[in-house]
Structures
1.
Amino acid sequence: MKKNSITTLNQFIADQQNKFPYVQGSLSRLFGAIQLSAKMINRDVRKAGLIDILGNFGETNVQGEEQKKLDVISNDVFKKLMDMSGDCVCVVSEEDQDIHWCPDGANAKYILAIDPLDGSSNIDVNASIGSIFSIFKRLSPDKPVNEEDIFQKGDRQVAAGYVIYGSATMFVYTTGSGVNGFTLDDSIQEFCLSHPDIKTPENGNILSVNEGNLNEFPQGVIDYISWCKEDNKADKRPYSARYIGSLIADFHRNLLKGGIYMYPPTAKAPNGKLRLLYECNPMAFLVEQAGGKASNGQMRIMDIQPTEFHQRTPLIIGSSNMVDQVIKMMAGEAGGGNR
Ligand code: P6P
């Protein structure tokens, strides 16, 4: 990236369109709608404390989680802009039980899965939160979209990304040709290329997991966490513990610095807490494009065959060698290997 040059997200996508024919007009238009959603949500997040949109909405979502006012606002923004784009057939959202069908989207090409505002527990305490999206292409332009189109494996995503509303607002995405990060310049309201071609270190020394659930984790995960705390200067152990309680914030830091995030099975969440379609698949696409790995402990996240809109999966994601180490120790557990 030339010093002092400015490449906006729109310019970057237009350039990608020239290089990669699959980034056709309608996909780049859909990105425009996602980008505008992000700017509107960013505006609301930044002033939430001043216009009484912090706190609980007063209902629970399909996950049985207390909805925050900003959860509902963000969800409505995404759906309204997808409706207006005309490039989206339907939206699967963490906040809705069923599919949202875009009224004028019957002939559109793309399906969107979203977590409109991840990390809700952090909204009222001003910690980083974010929006996560995953885009699939409908299987056939001639047949009405059905569950087969929705339940495509993560490997078939055409694009995925997130917007992190942190100390800066960043838009990070991939269409399968690497990962690029754009920082919102508030003065011109443009996302500008700031992190070209992100690659995540194959090793890291940051461990992100909620150790409050330690006693409920599989033995191999418990062994790995103990291993991370051993004194071994050669590979920079003990690792640092960093867990914000917001997947996007923990993932983004580990993506740039190296590290591992885990949400293993627990007694309360035997299939893990995070959702496959709109949290794990998009993050898995991003991390693999950046050179990292994403597994459920037994298999690659993007090989999992979805069967339900809101199905959960355990998630082990981050630096490739760290993910490999966890899987090896879990396998050791399966094979009764050394602790
Ligand atoms: P716990 C937020 O609700 C979320 O889905 C992720 O963003 C976050 O990493 C995780 O749940 C936190 O869950 O059980 O550790 O509070």
Note: Residues 25-47 form the longest helix (23 residues).
2.
Amino acid sequence: MRLVLLGPPGAGKGTQAHRLADRFGIPLIATGDIFRNNVERDTVLGREARRYMDAGELVPDEVVVAMVVGALEAAPDGFILDGFPRNLAQAEALETELERTEQPLSAALAFSIRDDTAVKRLVGRRTCTTCQRTYNLALHPPKVGGVCDVCGGRLEQRQDDREDTVRRRLEIYHESTEPLIGFYAGRDLLRTVDAEGSEAEVADRAERAVGLVTGGQGPPARA
Ligand code: AP5
């Protein structure tokens, strides 16, 4: 299974990506997580990415594409891509790379959510600094404050989850990433998922969309 997850910040892509990666037993490639890991370790890539991330802007395409192509080489048996592609140039670069390796996408899952729900989810989000799982102080708190339920790592607020930065990220999503819905619909790869509602409800819809639950849309015939 080779999946791309699309959707605005706060749609729950990361939350659902972890569940799907566990269900399929395939690697999760999350560009935002890779950048944050590099920021934490103060690498050259991390210093470059941080300038853009803290302002809610996109990291330049050449940096992201090279990083994703490297990660795909280590995932020959399938993958879930969360946060990539984010504009047309990235989508075309991904398509070229997957054609070269003869590994076509199975589907693009597009999670849809209202902007006001996204803002509410993001300002309350806390992220595990070790395994990157996410919680929400109001909607889905950890059992023990500040501590990840799964790995015991420290939880913290992301720099880009301040409300003004969240609104800038939503603007960029609508300008640059939303057009990819048409790009993948035109290739008969698009599967839409209503991302309003509880995590369990959204997970059920996502699993139906990729055919893990009988009666779902299922992946396209060529998957
Ligand atoms: P990235 O880390 O990819 O962030 P994002 O796409 O903005 O998405 P988020 O992680 O904010 O939201 P999500 O949809 O994953 O929601 P989550 O599951 O966490 O990118 C960050 C930055 O990196 C970018 O701004 C950019 O600078 C750079 N970058 C990354 N990729 C790039 C690329 N390809 N090109 C250029 N730059 C790139 O959930 C959010 C919250 O809601 C959590 O608190 C969660 O617990 C809660 N929640 C989730 N689902 C539900 C639910 N159903 N009900 C209630 N609460 C829920």
Note: Residues 2-213 form a domain with the Rossmann fold fold (CATH 3.40.50.300).
